């Protein structure tokens, strides 16, 4: 898989964070491969999380039976991207609210069939890249939070696969705060290496989009 245009949707307040380092590593590794990389830094943008009628430009067409998915316009950055990487610290076994808001507001347009066909999301790839403060064992069959794949199901299947993305296996940085500086450096090195050998056999086996859309 050769991504030409990559959008990194990034949610961390601090440029000194491990998430910032992971985002910077991705920008550098992808740019070095000739990709065009765009970063949506959601906190810096003061991205509005709530999907509301205010988002509809040019007037709401049907205020009485308001449907966000039918009213919202396509988002150019998403339209351009071959690959979307979500970089975030795990909050409550999910994404931070500001990133969920991006999914609600930007991916909301994909729910409209018209937008869906225009956007050709099925040609696009997406992946989650995130940090935790729990070690891997906590998100395992025998851990208190259970298997990480179950935790990620609503995001990876319920949102990304449902919207038509092909979803790459997630990049998980387990508990970077507790490890040594060397272990953090090696996590970042592993991420860079993965980005250079990108993702050939790395797609998750979800049911195809068409089985979601059979009712249309
Ligand atoms: C509301 C909320 C809910 C949460 N829910 C969960 C949850 O459900 N599950 C869970 O596991 N966690 C949860 N957390 C914890 C959260 O996921 C972690 O605190 C976060 O993922 C840590 O990532 P960070 O980027 O903020 O780390 P940071 O604390 O910024 O970084 C970790 C370490 O990496 C260092 N570092 C920074 N840059 C570099 C670099 N270039 N090279 C090497 N080292 C570097 C930093 O100096 C620091 O020592 C929650 C937190 C909050 C606030």
Automatic annotation (TrEMBL):
Q: What is this protein called?
A: Flavodoxin-like fold domain-containing protein
Return the SUPFAM superfamilies for the record: Flavoproteins
Source organism phylogeny? Eukaryota, Metazoa, Chordata, Craniata, Vertebrata
Similarity field? Belongs to the NAD(P)H dehydrogenase (quinone) family.
* Assigned keywords, A-Z: Oxidoreductase
Under the heading Gene3D superfamilies, the entry gives: 3.40.50.360
The protein's superkingdom reads: Eukaryota
Residue intervals of the Flavodoxin-like fold domain: 4-194
Cellular component GO terms, alphabetically? cytosol
């Amino acid at each position: 898989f050769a991504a030409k245009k990559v959008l990194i949707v990034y949610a961390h307040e601090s440029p000194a964070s491990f998430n910032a380092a992971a985002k910077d590593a991705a920008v550098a590794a992808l740019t070095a491969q000739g990709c065009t990389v765009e970063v949506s830094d959601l906190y810096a943008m003061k991205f509005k999380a709530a999907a509301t009628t205010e988002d509809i430009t040019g007037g709401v067409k049907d205020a009485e039976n308001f449907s966000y998915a039918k009213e919202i316009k396509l988002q150019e950055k998403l339209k351009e991207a071959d690959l979307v990487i979500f970089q975030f610290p795990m909050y409550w076994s999910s994404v931070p609210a500001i990133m969920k808001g991006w999914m609600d507001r930007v991916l909301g347009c994909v729910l409209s069939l018209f937008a869906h066909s225009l956007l050709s999301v099925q040609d696009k790839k997406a992946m989650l890249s995130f940090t935790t403060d729990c070690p891997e064992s906590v998100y395992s069959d025998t851990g208190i939070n259970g298997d990480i794949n179950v935790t990620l199901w609503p995001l990876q299947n319920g949102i990304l696969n449902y919207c038509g993305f092909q979803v790459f296996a997630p990049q998980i940085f387990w508990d970077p705060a507790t490890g040594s500086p060397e272990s953090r450096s090696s996590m970042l090195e592993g991420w860079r290496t993965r980005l250079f050998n990108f993702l050939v056999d790395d797609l998750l086996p979800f049911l195809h989009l068409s089985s979601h859309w059979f009712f249309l």
